[in-house]
Amino acid sequence: MAASTVRINLDGKPINPLTILMIGAGGFIGSHLCEKILQETPHKILALDVYSDKIKHLLEPDSLEWAGRIQFHRINIKHDSRLEGLIKMSDLTINLAAICTPADYNTRPLDTIYSNFIDALPVVKYCSENGKRLIHFSTCEVYGKTIGSFLPKDSPLRQDPAYYVLKEDASPCIFGSIEKQRWSYACAKQLIERLIYAEGAENGLEFTIVRPFNWIGPRMDFIPGIDGPSEGVPRVLACFSNALLRREQLKLVDGGESQRTFVYIKDAIEAVLLMIENPDRANGHIFNVGNPNNEVTVRQLAEMMTAVYANVSGEPALEEPTVDVSSKEFYGEGYDDSDKRIPDMTIINKQLGWNPKTSLWDLLDSTLTYQHKTYAEAVKKVISKPTTS
Ligand code: NAD
Ligand code: UDP
């Protein structure tokens, strides 16, 4: 971006260049946010993470036009005294760091709770004490299950949006019992939201909370055995991509009846940039960021991904592309699920005028094109290797 271009925000005010501390910059969302900020704004990024693979293309070579505007700090926020100094050096802190794959919630509940609550505490505290603005990434999972899911299966009220649309300032947070450890993540995220909100109310912390609703796109998670552990279980996009790349059946947990709305990462990142550059409109708010028009059951997602991947790869789909598995078999004891997730868009529309644009078919088309180009050869090589006994 040309340094001389004056950019203005939604209220017509010039946007001054910011220094942004991005914690978790090396992850899926962080990598897209770094890309957007470097390509379209004059802001500087202090990129903090324990990994940098997903932003390597932004850090090297030194000749890149934004080379002076991004600095990588390999830091684990669990135990590093440099954290407060970096927050002090920045105008804004964005915290993305988290354990956020459902396969971990019931199998590593302690790590999940520490990561999503305890490790986020110093970030909130240092921002509050030093008068720094914070954008914190929470999750749509804080809503838990819909009210409608407790109605009888044949109740006409299940069709009434009042029983399922999720509203930031009105919907309750409905989790399962404690032995359903799936909810360790949602509960930790809820508590950190409450703490941030209280810091705002009692100590004047300038904050924005983001609740992503299934953002998907290139660089999400990993393909097991290629750029992540062979036995690892990533989120659904990568699980299904992995099966398609290997020509295996896509596993539908408990029949694939749960419903999700998926939003393209590039649409969602536009919303985050609006929050960054319009603090007067974003501070003190919690925002749903999702695409209510892209709702499918997990089974429908599997069918659509199968059709899109056949187009992209030129290889016909399997005759029986899916197989049902129980959640106990797939995730182990303590798994539970959100039944349906439709974001209410009133607040983000009113404050930031943001709307998602990309249809589910289109976003799967670009994402699976990326998956095919990035992984197909590597997967073929792994599959063709004789297994050692
Ligand atoms: P991700 O796992 O790709 O990224 C998280 C990054 O944080 C990783 O690069 C990880 O190395 C880093 N990190 C974790 N703990 C750290 C620590 N102690 N110190 C330093 N770095 C650490 O996940 P993502 O999809 O990019 O999600 C980012 C945030 O958005 C998370 O808070 C997540 O809960 C939230 N979220 C995302 C989605 C989605 O649709 N992708 C949905 C709901 C919530
Ligand atoms: N799921 C599935 N097969 C898989 C992976 C996930 O049926 O191989 C289901 C999972 O049970 C959930 C949905 O897909 O109902 C979305 O899972 P994801 O891991 O993306 O996270 P969530 O949306 O639950 O946070």
UniProtKB/TrEMBL annotation:
GO terms for molecular function: identical protein binding; protein heterodimerization activity; UDP-D-apiose synthase activity; UDP-glucuronate decarboxylase activity. Residues 20-290 form the NAD-dependent epimerase/dehydratase domain. Pfam families: Epimerase. It catalyses: UDP-alpha-D-glucuronate + H(+) = UDP-alpha-D-xylose + CO2; UDP-alpha-D-glucuronate + H(+) = UDP-alpha-D-apiose + CO2. InterPro entries: Arna-like_SDR_e, Epimerase_deHydtase, Lipid_A_modif_metabolic_enz, NAD(P)-bd_dom_sf. SUPFAM superfamilies: NAD(P)-binding Rossmann-fold domains. Its cofactor is NAD(+). It comes from the Eukaryota. It is found in: Cytoplasm. Belongs to the NAD(P)-dependent epimerase/dehydratase family. This is UDP-glucuronate decarboxylase. It comes from Populus euphratica (Euphrates poplar).
